[in-house]
Amino acid sequence: MSAHGTKAKFQLALKDFETKWRQLQETWDDPASRALNTRYIEPLHDRVRQAISALEKIAEAQAAAKRECSSGEY
Question: Helices then strands (H, E): number in the chain?
Fold first, then answer.
C-alpha cells in the first residue's frame, strides 16, 4: 500500500476514534476518564498526527521520485 493510502487509513481511524471517544465522554466524565484522556488518549492522538505528517512527507517524496524517474531526470 502506498504512503498516501496508509495516510488515508490513519485519518479515517483517527476520526472514528475521536467520534467514539467523544460519545463515551458524554456518559463517562469523572476523574478516571479525565486521567485516561490525559495519560493515554491525548498522547496517542498526538502520535497519530505525527505519523500522518510523516506519511505526507513520504508520499511527497514518492511522488517526486516517480516524476523524476518517469521524466528521465535522474
Answer: 3, 0
